[in-house]
Write a structure and sequence with these properties.
2 domains, 38% helix, Arc Repressor Mutant, subunit A, four-stranded antiparallel β-sheet, Alpha-Beta Plaits, alpha+beta, 6 helices
Amino acid sequence: MKNDLNDVVDFDAIDRRILTELQMDGRITNVELARRAGISAPPCLRRVRRLEDAGLIRGYHAETDSSKLGWSITFFAIVGLESQKEVVLSAFEKTVATWEEVRECHMIRGGGDFLLRLVARDAAHENILTQRITGLPEVSRVQTLQTIRTSKSLAGVPI
């Protein structure tokens, strides 16, 4: 498997520090990022652009408070399909990709075919979403797991 980190020319500890800092705070100024990385601002900006061009930085986003925006429930659904043929798997992925409430969709191994993370406005909305999933023709079983609280949720990966 190809490692993108090794594909970046001269990938070093400074690049790792830049990625770590950006994962923690995507709004950090280039001047502050450079200070934390121990380099001046112009080479820091060049490094960030090189990391973006290499695909190691895919974008920037704001972390929002879902409950303050009216999405009080987060739940997971383990979904089993009638068939594991690629056409069936792809059709399911394509369908749920259009649902705004589906925030993540992972094909999984063991215990199901897909793991979805969904948000709902309330319990009634959660039930409607569950019924939507179970009503799909390719779905054979669904197990939902409602989140009580989240004690850790980190973006990115250890660098």
